[in-house]
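Render Metallo-beta-lactamase domain-containing protein in 3D.
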Amino acid sequence: MKFTDLLLMGSTIMIAIAAQPSPICTHATHDLSVYVYHLAPEPVSYQGSRNLTFSPTAFTLLVGAHSAVLVDAPATNAQGAEVASWVSSILGSDKTLQSIYITHGHGDHFFSARSFQSIYPAANILATVHGAEHVAQQYSEPFYSSFWGSLFGDTIDTEPLEVQTLGDDGIFHLEGHVLRAVEVGQGDTYNSTVLHVPGLDLVVGGDVVYGNCHQLFAEDHTPELRGQWLASLQEVNGLRPKVVIPSHTLPQDGYGAEHVNGTIDYIRAYEELLPKAKAWEELESSLKTRFPKRDGSFILRWSSQAPFNQAF
């Protein structure tokens, strides 16, 4: 196990990096700890093939002296059970899960939330007003069956979640610590947020900030929308975080603020390569060549096909 010391808000942060799937835990001196679980890529069924995988995903657990907040929940029931078991191993018998905060309305960030409520019945599910509206849309037909059902089959809980909405300021608390949902707007989808923990100079990036995973552009199909995503990233930079946890990232990527500019670089590369490509295969190949260390073959394929009007 490798340990790295970082200076954060005048206190020492220790990040323990272990073989995956194992937690990476950040300990602070303010009775607040941050744990991150890296879920392995999941095979999906796409265009008759299961050779593509959904992006690896990281889930963040903020733990106080007696209770905790989980940021997002996985897509499938099996993934939810895996992450819920990890949460239980962290919290033990003397702490409880207070809330699950959903950063945005993509189903791979909340479908399994009920898995956690079966263990922690008092845990509520939180989102911004606009985020909750997007969550509800993911269950609507024919969208659900044509998209999530086609990718993951019957491995997802199809009963809509009960989501409590935050106030306009996006603020909620964990044992007196301020947690703030920042509505940046456009990420790889609309109505996106990041979760800011000011006391730790920490941002959980949702699908606004990426690690070394290919970025989704199927919903950022115009230069204007990609420009809005860039503006959202500048808003994240304006929070001046020292620790940034992307949702789609690799265990070895670390949690530095450089992920924000890395996401900006990828958007600008997509802008550069898209007009040069005569077919989706060329765009996919160019992105692979430009970013050889990035994971997430399904998202790369979909983002490459979307501008060429390939049917999902």
